[in-house]
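Changelog-adjacent note: as of this version, every example in the card shows the full chain rather than a window. The one below runs 268 residues end to end.
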Amino acid sequence: MKDGGRSPGAGAARPAALLRTEGVGKDFGGFTAVRNVDLRVAAGEVRAIIGPNGAGKTTLFNLISGELTPSRGRIFYRGADVTRAPSYELARRGIGRSFQVTNVFRRLSVLENVRIAVQARFGARYDFFASVGRRPEVRERAEEILRTIGLADDRHREAGVLSHGDQRRLEIGIVLATDPELVLLDEPTSGMSREETHATLELIQRVAARKTIVFIEHNMDVVMHAARVITVMHRGDVIAEGGPAEIRAHDEVRRAYLGGTDAPSRSP
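Full-length structure tokens:
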């Protein structure tokens, strides 16, 4: 792995890693999608993973969240080796993840989408469609999440009629409903309008006050505004890591991803 320079806080005592990977790689036949990635994410950190299409970002997410098993290397969460743990076990341990493609129950209401996830967290796994009145704490938690994601006024609308941006925010709400400690967001602003992107950026910043966030994103404005640490991938490798100013000035990143020029941040 190539070093992008001094990472934030270099020279000071390093906080314990909430998430850590050691030499993680993934092969598909003769193709290597991720090669020997070392990643260290501290509790409370907001980290962006960026890179061109095909860089291995989503494959790395799939390895961390248990959707795929590494071909080599190890993954640690809260100090425990979870390299071969399935996704449902990692969710139980506190890793929540959204996907590139919106994944909501389109025919159910916004409130029902969130309530089902809250109910699963409360342990009522086989009674998803029970009357909400039987578990008022579930309804209260679901309503709290709807306020957090800005969809409280849409609680009774079918999820399928929401705008694309609102559906993406609803999906983040579903992730939050499982009460994860680590939130993985895969391209949370993909396909959004400028206004939707701004609302989602504000949501990420609110969530970051209470959670550790790792997100994949192509919108560099969002990355530069939200992330405290940025990891840059290219052809399966990590080529740089550091704060926004370091990454913006990094020659190899500019060649591989930013088109060879500085990428000044604009307000999203």
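Structural remarks: Confidence is low (pLDDT under 50) at residues 1-10, 261-268.
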